[in-house]
Design brief:
Layout (H helix, E strand, L loop, with lengths): L20 E6 L5 E7 L6 E5 L10 H9 L3 E5 L17 H14 L5 E5 L1 H13 L7 E4 L7 H14 L6 H11 L15 E3 L5 E3 L8 H4 L4 H10 L5 E6 L7 H10 L4 E5 L11 H14 L8
Parallel strand pairs: 3-4, 3-5, 5-6, 6-9, 9-10
Antiparallel strand pairs: 1-2, 2-4, 7-8
Helix pairs in contact: 2-3, 3-7, 4-5
């Protein structure tokens, strides 16, 4: 998710002034997960979960915008992504990510709502279904439904497959983003400084473990059935936010989701693709806040 700050409300500080505190959370398995925290800790809690091949930094600006709107917000790097530790046994299955998020949810002093994009949406959906309303207040899925369109899935798989072997130059890395990941970097390579690493072989890699992109990690044959079942068991307010131009979540995918979970709300971002774009952040944040208020997930005063 690549986004920019919304305009501050009258009388409120600018989103740039909201401090983000970085730390780490150690799971019961001993894996250290890098975290960002923002907002008043006594306010309603949100946990953001990023997409595959991304990091918590993809939520950084949304984090500040939600904090300025009166939320206590947590974002973390999935295992093997960003600044989190890599799995020693290469376990990056959905089950492993769900265990990590479950540990974070259980560590919260109050019930959070979960916001997940793409892979993070899968993790948030399965976690919310397992933990139920006793531990999770609400769920926001960003361009993620149990059923995904094959063309979009192929694009994502191509991006991950090409990226696994690294790149000779940063220009090559940026070109792959432009072609497969809806990010127009141009010649502003400085924007990639937190997304890349240089290995001992001198090649440039994204800041995630290549094992996280293997078929073992991603190609679960029953994933649609698994997530459809999870959605059917949800007992909490649920919102789907998707871009109308997404090649992953098409109208057919939305219809399947509505049939599975009739109580779910859907907000379309006109012209938006799979990844949140700069101009979409205001719509996303406002839609999410409005949903959480109407669902009585947060006090009306927020």
């Amino acid at each position: 998710m690549v986004a920019d700050e919304a305009s501050p409300k009258q009388g409120m500080p600018d989103a740039h002034d909201i401090p983000v505190v970085s730390g780490e959370f150690t799971t019961p398995e001993g894996i250290s997960l890098a975290t960002d925290i923002a907002g008043d800790p006594w306010k309603p809690r949100l946990i953001f979960v990023h997409g595959g091949g991304q990091s918590r930094r993809s939520w950084r600006r949304a984090l500040r915008n939600m904090a300025i709107s009166g939320f206590s917000v947590v974002s973390f790097d999935l295992r093997g992504h960003g600044e989190s530790a890599w799995s020693t046994d290469g376990d990056y299955t959905l089950e492993a990510h769900v265990r990590d998020l479950t540990a974070i949810v259980r560590a919260m002093p109050s019930r959070p709502s979960l916001i997940g994009a793409s892979l993070g949406g899968r993790v948030a959906l399965e976690t919310a279904a397992r933990l139920g309303p006793e531990l999770v207040k609400g769920l926001v899925l960003v361009d993620l439904t149990p059923k995904l369109h094959p063309a979009g899935m192929q694009r994502v798989q191509n991006f991950l497959k090409i990226s696994m072997n690294g790149f000779d130059t940063i220009e090559d890395a940026a070109a792959v983003l432009d072609k497969y990941a809806e990010r127009q970097i141009g010649h502003n390579y400085f924007r990639l400084r937190n997304s890349i690493r240089t290995d001992l072989d001198g090649r440039i890699y994204w800041r995630w473990d290549p094992q996280a992109a293997t078929e073992k990690s991603l190609a679960r044959p029953d994933i649609e059935d698994l997530l459809t079942d999870a959605a059917s068991r949800l007992q909490i307010p649920t919102l789907l936010v998707r871009g109308t131009e997404s090649d992953l979540v098409t109208d057919d995918c939305v219809a399947h989701f509505r049939q599975t979970l009739p109580s779910a709300e859907v907000v379309d971002i006109a012209g938006g693709g799979h990844l949140m774009k700069t101009q979409d952040l205001t719509v996303f944040c406002e839609a999410t806040i409005d949903f959480l208020k109407r669902a009585n997930v947060v006090p009306v005063a927020v």
